[in-house]
Amino acid sequence: MVENVAPVMADLEPEDFYLLSGVEQGMRFSEYVAREKLPQFSRLTAEDVDYRLDRCEDRGLVERKTIQYEGFKLTFEGYDALALHAFVERDTFDGVGAPLGVGKESDVYEVRSYEPLALKFHREGYTNFREVMKEREYTADRDHVSWQYTARKAAEREYDALESLYPDVSVPRPVDQNRHAIVMEKVDGVELSRTKLTDEQVLPVLELVLAEAAGAYEAGYVHADMSEYNVFVTDAGVVVFDWPQAVTADHENADELLARDVENVVGYFQRKYPALTDGLDTTELAECVAAGEAPTLG
Ligand SMILES: Nc1ncnc2c1ncn2[C@@H]1O[C@H](COP(=O)(O)OP(=O)(O)O)[C@@H](O)[C@H]1O
Ligand SMILES: [Mg+2]
To answer: Which domains does the chain have, with CATH numbers?
Structure first.
């Protein structure tokens, strides 16, 4: 579990962020950054580095390790603090609110702006990284940026997909991206998995989801993790979210992934509403979506 860093943000001073960003820079070269390299990376005096390191370590933003030398690395909390700082500096939002969801590989919070927005911290690489590191000794320096890099790439991929798809496809409106975090419209809806649709709603809602899959494919993307957990049902229709693993339509497995997306969604409806979805042919529906057409059901 990564702790919510929002409560410590108010305590942090500009020089603390110099230090954190100095550690971040040093981590491009080694997993742990030697203390004596930090004045150069952070543009602080050696004394200030010592003082700031203690403050940041107390707040769980950096981790110390003494191997042959005394070194420091950012924790995920430290990386979160840097992203939050960047967003606040550029007025994307001014405060972090309640958690909206803890996903498989993310932490999502509501944030305050001129309207409520959603902030998603990507955690890809976090769990895996921990497991990998348990098995292996802390010697293989080439893996040192693993989680940071993986999580940042995931955020970039998700943001790119949202920017390409919005507003033609019903996805959350993208607002900003920094490091491993993205800011987007906060969707007021219920995850499909948690809805109990009336008999009259079942096929129309499935139709809407397949229409978005078809629209995304036409716009050049396959979601590749489509399921009842990544679709919101709102008053206005459906919103498909969680796009970091999306592939472009020219990807070698795009058609396979698209068919799997359709199978996932149709399969969910078939399990939950068997009587109403009896006659549906998944293969036919997948072909229809791959042709960029929204199937008409019932
Ligand atoms: N734009 C949003 N507005 C409101 N809630 C969101 C938004 N994006 C994500 N969430 C909430 O956070 C949870 C996790 O987000 P998701 O993008 O699915 O990440 P993961 O990859 O971890 O599954 C979602 O199930 C949802 O409840
Ligand atoms: Mg999800």
So the answer is: 6-185 (3.30.200.20), 190-290 (1.10.510.10)
